[in-house]
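Worked example

This section walks through a single chain of length 194. The input is the sequence exactly as stored; nothing has been trimmed or padded.
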Amino acid sequence: MIAFLEGEVAGRTEGSALVNVGGVGFEVGMSQIDLSKLPAAGERVVVHTYLQVREDGMALFGFLSLEAKELFERLITVSGVGPKVALAALSSYDPATLASYIAAQDVSAVQRVPGIGKKMASRIILELKGAFDEGLGGLFAEEKPAANPALDGASEALLAMGFTSAEIELALAGAPEGASEAALLQYALKKLGS
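Given that input, the structure is written out below as tokens.
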């Protein structure tokens, strides 16, 4: 596995950087945000990498921060999300912003990424929302509210039923403190008229 490349920027294309490491040129797929932050040709750079090995070939993806790499790796674990879509997401938002949208269950914000529709945005949120506590918690240590497992569970269930994050937020507003997940779900469904 190639964990990182340290070398000189040899050039860039529309979706990748060319990195010269000791006379060997690596083509590394990158997000538009990271490509825009690359130093000028001939300058030194460290790129954290992810190597994808498939039957039809290998591809190397690069990131200027470990947070971006970790978020990319999380995104591609979601069914239907490949490296192209994950890079599009990281081209649309920096890692902290994208992760905060997922944590806040903001389907419409995630859906703004090219190649992600409403169903895929909901799937990304459902599958990754809890993952930030484990590996990417440091991204939003400052802005993360206290966890409420019952409220999170009720929100996820409502999201799975097809309600939008805005509808869910309104439906759960004013819910009794300390209520169980089932009680919160019942409370929200009454307000939603189901």
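What to look for: Strands lie at 4-12, 16-21, 24-29, 44-54, 57-63.
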